[in-house]
Amino acid sequence: MSQAADITAFKADLVPVGSDQPPMIEQTTEIVRSFNRTYACSVLVEPRPLLFSVPRLPGTDCKGKMSKSLGNAIYLGDSDDVVRDKVKKMYTDSGHLRPEPPGQVEGNPVFAYLDAFDPDQVGRDVLKAHSVKAGSATAP
């Protein structure tokens, strides 16, 4: 009810949500319909979920999704320096401790963030190729 109140208070018709949250929007829609039907009005707006191409980002510790309670989140209000520090501390590929074995892109949170926010597809592809290339200790 509290989340439904937060959404309806702002008459939001599109609500940006993560991939695990559409059921919460569906519940809010049912509450809105019930309220409007009960009071024969259309005061409350029915919300719809707005999903993005990247519906979920991993936490900076690579232990599931970002979460305030786990302390593994990057906040919109974080300064550039704080974001930089959090990204530098991210777990990457635990199996790629030396340059000889090939690295992995899958499951690497740094690449998940690059895919979400870096518009340079060619640059990302070069970094990914370098990461999986065995025997190279220097960046491109």
Global structural class: mainly alpha
Q: In sequence order, what are the helices and strands, one letter per element? A: HEHEHHH
**Beta-strand segment tally:** 2
Strand content of the residues, in percent? Answer: under 5%
**Terminal Cα separation, in Å?**
52 Å
| Shape by Cα distribution | elongated
What's the story with the biggest beta sheet? Answer: 2 strands, parallel
Average of the residue pLDDT scores: 85
Helix count, DSSP H or I runs of 4 or more residues = 5
Q: Enumerate the spans where pLDDT stays under 50 for 5 or more consecutive residues.
A: 136-140
- Order of neighbouring strands in the sheet with most strands: 1-2
Rg is 21 Å
The helix fraction, in percent, is 25-40%
How does this structure look, described?
- By secondary structure, the protein is mostly helical.
- Among the domains are: 2-50, no CATH class; 92-132, no CATH class.
- It has helices at 2-9, 22-38, 80-88, 109-117, 121-132, and strands spanning 14-16, 48-50.
- A two-stranded parallel sheet has the order 1-2.
- Helix 2 links the parallel strand 1 (14-16) and strand 2.
- The N and C termini lie far apart (52 Å).
- Mean pLDDT is 85; it is low at 136-140.
